[in-house]
Write a structure and sequence with these properties.
Strand order of the largest sheet: 1-2
Radius of gyration: 34 Å
GO cellular component, one term: membrane
Organism: Ramlibacter aurantiacus
InterPro entries: HAMP_dom
Helix content: 55-70%
CATH class: Mainly Alpha
Keywords: Membrane, Transmembrane, Transmembrane helix
CATH architecture: Orthogonal Bundle
Number of strands: 2
Protein name: HAMP domain-containing protein
Number of domains: 1
Order of helices and strands: EEHH
Distance between the termini: 93 Å
Largest sheet: 2 strands, antiparallel
């Protein structure tokens, strides 16, 4: 325990006539409040940082892919392929999406050619 001037001396009487002087903080609450507020600020900061990372690395690419899927589903095959910058699961999903898009475009062209005959 650290000693500061805000501590009040208390005299304890033990066995016999010996006296022991102990110190008890006058107001322990300000330290506790400061600790709780500091921890809360750290928690909020970490939550905001985590939210930003998740938004940039997961949510934004999925929204881009959903937008491309919507346009392709209406027949707009001029949409550029999905471009993933990383080498993770979302990039693998993007590559699969691009293969599906090309296969769908090729199948529709084959059906269109067959119907012309």
């Amino acid at each position: 325990m650290r000693f500061n001037l805000a501590m009040l001396p208390i005299v304890l009487v033990g066995l016999g006539m010996a006296q022991v002087v102990a110190s008890v903080p006058a107001d322990p609450q300000p330290d506790a409040h400061a600790l709780v507020l500091s921890l809360a600020a750290i928690f909020v900061g970490m939550a905001l940082a985590l939210n930003l990372v998740i938004r940039l690395t997961i949510v934004r690419p999925i929204r881009r892919m959903a937008s491309k899927a919507e346009r392709i589903s209406t027949g707009h095959f001029d949409e550029p392929p999905f471009d993933a910058d990383a080498h993770d699961d979302l990039a693998a999903l993007g590559a699969s999406f691009n293969r599906m898009r090309y296969s769908l475009e090729k199948a529709l062209h084959m059906i269109a050619q067959e119907s012309r005959w």
